[in-house]
Design brief:
Layout: H1 13-47, H2 54-83, H3 85-95, H4 98-129, H5 131-158
């Protein structure tokens, strides 16, 4: 199994090297974002200026720690990959495998259907519980549909 955003259209190891360097930079940004989340959360908590409940402060700490941990693991992985030509070639072949990409596309579509159904259920239940939930879910569904329409228009011109 590979990640949902790990398919690429590249035919050369040098092209894949550029993509891997870009992923390395994104991983570094994730580590920095995690550090910022932790620093801001801890500062607001200890300075007494946070009105966020303790549960959510813990959640933010977990988010920051998770971003840092995952980012560091990815940074190490990408650095090792960039240093070893054989591993880079194996990774490129794996990520351009048509069968794995087709499986990944089907899995993403199935997960998307489940997510949209869950959002509609929350939207309907939210009507009876809290209108803010309904408003947020409506906004997210509209955002998804608009993003789909725009992406579809862009990709139909490019492909």
């Amino acid at each position: 199994m590979k990640g949902p955003f790990c398919s690429v259209n590249v035919n050369t190891d040098e092209g894949f090297r550029k993509i891997t360097k870009r992923r390395l930079a994104i991983s570094i940004v994730l580590v920095i974002a995690g550090i910022l989340i932790l620093v801001i959360n801890e500062y607001t908590r200890h300075a007494g200026i946070s009105k966020v409940p303790e549960f959510y402060q813990g959640m933010f700490s977990g988010m920051g720690t998770g971003l840092i941990g995952a980012g560091i693991v990815q940074v190490i992985r990408y650095i090792k990959l960039l240093k070893d030509e054989a591993k880079l070639k194996v990774a490129r072949i794996s990520e351009t495998d048509e069968r794995l990409n087709a499986i990944n596309d089907k899995a993403l579509k199935a997960a998307l259907v489940v997510m949209i159904i869950a959002m509609y259920v929350v939207l309907i239940v939210g009507i009876f519980v809290d209108m803010q939930v309904t408003t947020v879910m409506s906004g997210l569904l509209i955002l998804f549909l608009l993003a789909f329409i725009v992406a579809n228009a862009i990709y139909s011109k490019r492909m």
